[in-house]
Amino acid sequence: MTLEPVRRPALSAEVIEALRARIASGEWPVGSRIPPEPELMRQLQVARGTVREAVRALAHAGLLEVRRGDGTYVRATSELSGAVSRLYGHSGLGQLLEVREALDTQAARLAAVRAEDATLDELALALQRRGDAWRAGDFEGWIAADWAFHSGVAEAAGNPLLSELYCNLAEPLHAAMADTWSTPGFEGADPVGHESLLAALRDRDPDGAAEQAGANVADTRAWDTRAQEPRAHQPHAARP
After folding, report:
1. Cα atoms in the 13 Å half-sphere on the side-chain side of 200
2. For 121-155, how does the pLDDT look when each residue is reduced to its tens digit (9 = 90+)?
3. What is the DSSP string of the chain?
4. Residue-wise over 58-67: b if at least 16 C-beta within 10 A, else e?
5. 214-236 tens-digit pLDDT
6. Is-contact 114 81, C-beta < 8 A?
7. For the purposes of burial, counting CB atoms within 10 Å of the CB of 83, is it exposed (0-12), middle (13-18) or buried (19 or more)?
8. From CA 109, how far away is CA 56, in angstroms rounded?
9. For residues 17, 20, 25 and 28, what is the CA-based torsion angle, rounded to 10 degrees?
10. What pTM did the predictor assign?
11. Residue among 120, 83, 115, 77 at smallest CA distance from 99
């Protein structure tokens, strides 16, 4: 798919929206390099200055990253996600977990009341994929399934604002978890906060669901703390 030419007099706002749409749709995934300046000018039928102004605006918003001599890369899928990445992307998992604890527990509490049975079945399938990926040592599959479960709980809460806030944690959280995937003692198939949370949702138990969501964050915080310790002081543990 190519960009549609801007038919009206070229305004930077229109070009910004055209570029943002390609990012939000996933046509330009996070980490990918966008087309070079001459190609954008050709597709959009606008002047070089207009393209540069739009790219600068999206870079300032955190969606793009301009690398001199290399090109322009997608950094985030939305302004909110870009802001989260900019604020927490280099701070490790600890600060993200503090935010997640608040969102996860409230999402679980609401989902226990509002989630439809079909949604709970979808969450169960995500957990099955999660377990299979962990046993296979498939990090990408594991984190995709894990995120599908947790973001699915947030969506099942029935509060679009909560779900939007939660989903914008995805990119920095994935990056932080990638760094700690091989932490000794980490058990990526632990049912605490996952199968146990799903059971509480099926029981329509808001307090139990919130407790299990909080337990998952506490467990993640514990292994993240171990990951920050000097390797020499960590006990040996075999990879699953």
Report:
1. 26
2. 999 999 999 999 999 989 889 988 998 999 999 99
3. --PPP--SSP-HHHHHHHHHHHHHHTSS-TTPBPPPHHHHHHHHT--HHHHHHHHHHHHHTTSEEEETTTEEEE--SSHHHHHHHHHHTTS-HHHHHHHHHHHHHHHHHHHHHH--HHHHHHHHHHHHHHHHHHHHT-HHHHHHHHHHHHHHHHHHTT-HHHHHHHHTTHHHHHHHHHHTTT-TT--TT--TTTHHHHHHHHTT-HHHHHHHHHHHHHHHHHHHHHHHS-GGGSPP----
4. bbebbbbbee
5. 998 888 777 767 666 654 344 43
6. no
7. middle
8. 41
9. 130
10. 0.68
11. 83
CA max distance for the chain: 65
